[in-house]
C-alpha cells in the first residue's frame, strides 16, 4: 500500500480573508445637533465628505451622506425595570450596612427601661435607626388610613 502524500495538504492555498474594517467608526456614537455640536458640549463633528472629495481616502461615496440618520430608540420604563433598579439599590444599601456593622464591632452596653445588654456598636446603631424609622412610619400609616376612610365616605355621599 502506498501512503498518502502528507506534503500535499500543506501546499494547498489558504482561503482569502476579507479585509478588516477601519478602526474609525463611520458615524458618530452620539447624534449630532444642529451646527455640528455634540450634546453635552465637546468637539464639533466634522461635516461629511462632499462629492469633490470622493477620490481621497476615507471620503464618503455620493448619496451615502444624504440618507437620514436613524432616530435613537427610546425604551419604555416598565414595572420590572423599576423593580430591578429597586433591587439593585437595596443590595447596595445592604452591602454598605454590612460593612458598617463589621467595622463597628466594639461592644457597648445598652440600658433601656431597666433592661441592659451588650451589643456590637454597629448593631446597636442600626437598631436605633430602625426604631426611628418606625416612629415616623407608624403615624404616617395612620394618616394614610384616615385619608382613605374620608375618601370612601366622600365617594359614597356623592
Automatic annotation (TrEMBL):
Pfam families noted in UniProt: LapA_dom
Q: GO cellular component annotations, sorted alphabetically? A: plasma membrane
Recite the UniProt keywords alphabetically.
Answer: Cell membrane, Membrane, Transmembrane, Transmembrane helix
Residue stretches spanning the membrane: 83-102, 122-142
Region entry Disordered: which residue ranges?
Answer: 1-27
Q: Enumerate the spans annotated as Lipopolysaccharide assembly protein A domain.
A: 103-157
Tell me the superkingdom of the source. Answer: Bacteria
Q: Can you name this protein?
A: Putative integral membrane protein
Q: Which organism is it from?
A: Kutzneria kofuensis
Source organism phylogeny? Bacteria, Bacillati, Actinomycetota, Actinomycetes, Pseudonocardiales
